[in-house]
Amino acid sequence: MESTQPHIKTMKLFLFMLLVGLLTAIGGEIKIIPFEEGPFRFGLGSIIFFFALLIRPLPIVSTGLLTALIVIVGRSLLDIFIYGQSFVTHIVEHLPAGAFYTVFALCFKLIPLDELKKQPLMLGLLATAFEVLSNTIEHVLTDILLVSDQETFTSFLLFILVGLLRSFFVVGIYSMITMSEQKKQLKQLMTIHSELYVEALYLQKTMTQIEQLTANSYQLYKKLKTNEEQLASEALHIAQEIHEVKKDNERIHAGLSKITKRNYPSNFLLSELLSFIVEANENYAAYLNKSISITLICPDDYQTKNHIALFAILNNLMANAVEAIEKSGFITLNVVAEQDMTSFIVEDNGVGIDPALISIIFDAGYTSKFNEQGQGSTGIGLSHTKTIVENLEGNIHVTSDTSTCFVVQIPTENIQKEND
């Protein structure tokens, strides 16, 4: 089984190279012929070939040679079908086009393509230069083999213009796709980090309780030590076991803290962070087969810090709002950013909250979510949300009447990036 894996991988790679060659050849037939009655043409082939090199690692030279062969043979067979004449005649006619893809591939072989993908301007300029060089060689070969009265200077200017257009078109499309994928991965990463952040907070609170429990167990041991030696020994053993649990929790907490304190490479605008949350909960509503209109109102904007804490607070409130709506409804996330305080208002027209429960919904252990077996939810809960808000020196309160409205107020300086 293991010996067949490299063969299968090689076969898949060859088939992809073959597909690139075929698509390039077909794309080359969608063309503009700039010189009247001349064999020279501008097509979409180089766009397809260049894009293929960007989206998947390929043996560049081999792919270029295979593409050149497919273009020469393919165009020759097509011309025989349309115009007749000999196969050799058409092969000679299309040799310059094959030279284009050979030179084009050789040029890309000489540069660190993977590194340049991160520098779109430089990549676009280099690709333009490669286009100009390849087109010039194709033009010279066409002049030698077929036509001897082509305008060289005009052709060169045209090569530059077409090279710029084709190269930056490909780089632009690739950059948009890459940025979209990176944005998607960033949203997923922030969701995971926000969940880990809350779990780390919960673990920290648990460690405080364990510390107190350890102290109580040791005090019990001291009281029993004089009269009840057997019970005292058992109490001391319990204290030691609890202490070991605490040390394990500390190690886990240390690992989680390293993850949740990660510095993100970009500075998030408040509106950008909120759009992540809105999109995530639109997907959550769709997953639950609910028709929910979510509106974001953010007239003021600034760069943020404490991304994970803020994400955890608002994502939890928005997810609760989604769950509170039975079939269809609306959710509004309204932001009022002032110099000293930023308010986040999450409103929904779901089932609402019983007035008698409003005073306890932020208490630890409270939940309104139960599974089919009657077991309470183990989610982060509003108590942890409140703790995060208070860690940011803010406050949270709720009203519920015709709609349910959670209001979170956080000092702006605690979530706004300095030197904005």
TrEMBL record:
Histidine kinase domain: residues covered: 310-414
Keyword set includes Aminoacyl-tRNA synthetase: no
InterPro entries membership: HATPase_C_sf, HATPase_dom, His_kinase_dom, Sig_transdc_His_kin-like_C
Spans through the membrane: 153-177
Molecular function (Gene Ontology), one example: ATP binding
Enzyme Commission number(s): 2.7.13.3
SMART domains according to UniProt: HATPase_c
UniProt entry keywords in alphabetical sequence: ATP-binding, Kinase, Membrane, Nucleotide-binding, Phosphoprotein, Transferase, Transmembrane, Transmembrane helix, Two-component regulatory system
Catalytic activity annotation: ATP + protein L-histidine = ADP + protein N-phospho-L-histidine
Pfam families registered for this protein in UniProt: HATPase_c
Top class in the EC scheme: transferase
Domain of life where this protein originates: Bacteria
UniProt-listed PANTHER family: HYBRID SIGNAL TRANSDUCTION HISTIDINE KINASE C, TWO-COMPONENT HISTIDINE KINASE
Protein name, as recorded: histidine kinase
